[in-house]
Specification:
single chain, about 160 residues, alpha+beta, 2 domains, six-stranded mixed sheet, four-stranded antiparallel sheet
């Protein structure tokens, strides 16, 4: 891991740009879920209501996962806000202990506790042996920063 501290002022408002892997994983997972749902609906003509409910469940789960998609940052004098498709994560600047650049290999070698490693971006709870548990919100694995607050650790694009 790069141990390069960065000044909080380097973190600016941005719209996240997706990398190829996030795009490919999102397309594959969405098309896969929709393909399965279509197959289930076609089968429901002969197999009944259970198949229709299964297809609807797949569509709802895919839509719920998409709500976690990180879209960008809004940065002002007091807060760093991670915008998501639905909702936002607010980090108070006064709670920030440190900000350190992170290499992509840290994220790639982290264990995912819950979340996504590409489909609808990179988001969720992760753990790495050198930095511990952290929450990730990114759409590409370049220009990552580890923000440590008094309560949590975040890795985000900046």
């Amino acid at each position: 891991m790069e141990n390069t501290k960065i000044d909080i002022k380097e973190i600016r408002s941005i719209r996240f740009v997706w990398d190829k892997m996030a795009n490919v994983m999102t397309v594959i997972s969405t098309m896969g879920m929709l393909g399965i749902a279509i197959f289930v609906f076609v089968q429901s003509r002969t197999e009944g209501l259970e198949m229709i409910c299964s297809g609807l469940l797949l569509i709802v789960v895919t839509a719920l996962l998409a709500t976690f998609t990180p879209l960008g940052l809004i940065v002002d004098d007091e807060y760093i806000v991670v915008k998501k498709l639905v909702g936002r994560i607010v980090i108070k600047k006064c709670d920030i202990i440190s900000a350190t650049k992170v290499d992509a290999h840290i994220v790639r070698r982290s264990g995912r506790m819950a979340g996504s490693s590409g489909a609808f971006g990179y988001w969720g709870k992760f753990r790495h042996r050198s930095i511990g548990s952290y929450t990730l919100y990114a759409t590409n694995l370049e220009r990552l920063v580890l923000i440590e607050t008094t309560k949590k650790k975040y890795v985000i694009n900046y």
